[in-house]
Amino acid sequence: MSKIKRLAIIPARCGSKRILNKNIRKFCGRPIIHYVLDIINESKLFDTVHVSTDCEQIRKIVTDFGCPPDFVRPTEIADDQTPLMPVLKYVCEKYLKQGKDFDQIWLLMPTSPFLEVKDLVMAENLFSESESSKSILAVSEYQVPIEWAFERAKGGVLKPLQQGMLAIRSQDLSPKYHDTGSFSIFSMNDILSSVGVGNNFNFVGYVLPKYKAIDIDTLDDWYFAEALYRGMRGG
Q1: Is the pTM value of this prediction over 0.90?
Q2: CB atoms within 10 A of CB 71
Q3: How far is CA 179 from CA 89, 153, 170, 190, 206, in A?
Q4: Mean pLDDT of 196-204
Q5: Which residue in 89, 98, 157, 213 could disulfide with 153, CB within 3.0 to 4.6 Å?
Q6: Can you name the residues that pair with 137 across neighbouring β-strands?
Q7: What is the chain written as a DSSP string?
C-alpha cells in the first residue's frame, strides 16, 4: 500500500484590516502563526507545508521558523475579497507543475492556537474512513440554540428571527454546528475540480470543543483567546 501524501496549506496574506498584521501578531509572546506550524511539525503527518502569502514580512518569519514558502501568492488572489478555494487551487496547480501530487490537501488557518496534534490525527482518521466524495470541516456546537437568535434593529429593538422559539428549552432543541475557522481537509481532485468558492454540501464534521473554536476576527476575539490560553496554562 502506497504512502498517503499530504499537503498542508496555511493562508497568510498581508492586509488584515480588523486586526493589524493578524497572522503574525504576537499571541502570548509569539507570532500566532507559530502555534499551528508547531502542531503541523509535531504531527509528522505532512510531506509538504506551504505558507501561502504575498507578504515579505510573513515569508521571513515563517522561513526563520523553518517553513519557507515554495512560492509567493499572486496579488490577484491576495485581496480581502478572494475566497480560500481559489487560493488552494492555485497552490495545488503550482505543485502539479513541479511534479508534486498529493492525496490530501489540508487547509489550516494561521490563527488557530488551541489546536492539538491529536485533533489532526483524529481528523485524518475521520477523513480516511469517510466516503471518498466527502471533505472534513472542523466544527463546534453553537454556544446557545440558534433558534433563540435576535436581530437588533434601530433604537436597539430586538426582533426574534423565529417567533416563539425563545420559549422552547435548549434541551428540547437539536444542537447546531458552525465552522470554527480552524481547518478542513480535501482530496486534491476536489480542489482541482472546484469552481469559484466551492460548495458546503459535502462535508463531514470533525467536532472541536468550544474552547478550541474561537474564530479570531476582532480584537475582542483576540483578547478573549489570549486570556483563555494563559488561563489554561496557568499563566
Answers
A1: yes
A2: 12
A3: 20, 26, 21, 19, 10
A4: 80
A5: 157
A6: 184, 205
A7: -PPPPEEEEEE--S--SSSTTGGGSEETTEETHHHHHHHHHHHT--SEEEEE-S-HHHHHHHHHHT---SSPPPGGG-STT--HHHHHHHHHHHHHHTT---SEEEEE-SS-TT--HHHHHHHHHHHHHS-TT-EEEEEEE-SS-GGG-EEE-GGG-EEESSTTGGGS-GGGS---EEEEEEEEEEEHHHHHT--TT--SSSEEEEEPPGGG-----SHHHHHHHHHHHHHHTT-
Residues whose CB is less than 8 angstroms from the CB of residue 178 and which lie 6 or more positions away in sequence, other chains included: 139, 140, 142, 213
75-87 per-residue burial string, b: 16 or more CB within 10 A, e: under 16:
eebbeeebebbbb
Q: What is the pLDDT of residues 141-170, one digit of tens each?
A: 999 999 999 999 999 999 999 999 999 999
One-letter amino acid identity for 171? Answer: Q
Q: What is the pLDDT of residue 235?
A: 59
Other CB atoms within a 10 A radius of the CB of residue 49 amount to 22
d(CA 47, CA 208): 25
Radius of gyration of the chain (CA): 19
Residues in the chain: 235
Q: What is the pLDDT of residue 230?
A: 94
What's the one-letter identity of residue 195? V
Alpha-carbon distances of 144 from 43, 152, 153, 164, 174, rounded to whole Å: 33, 17, 21, 16, 11
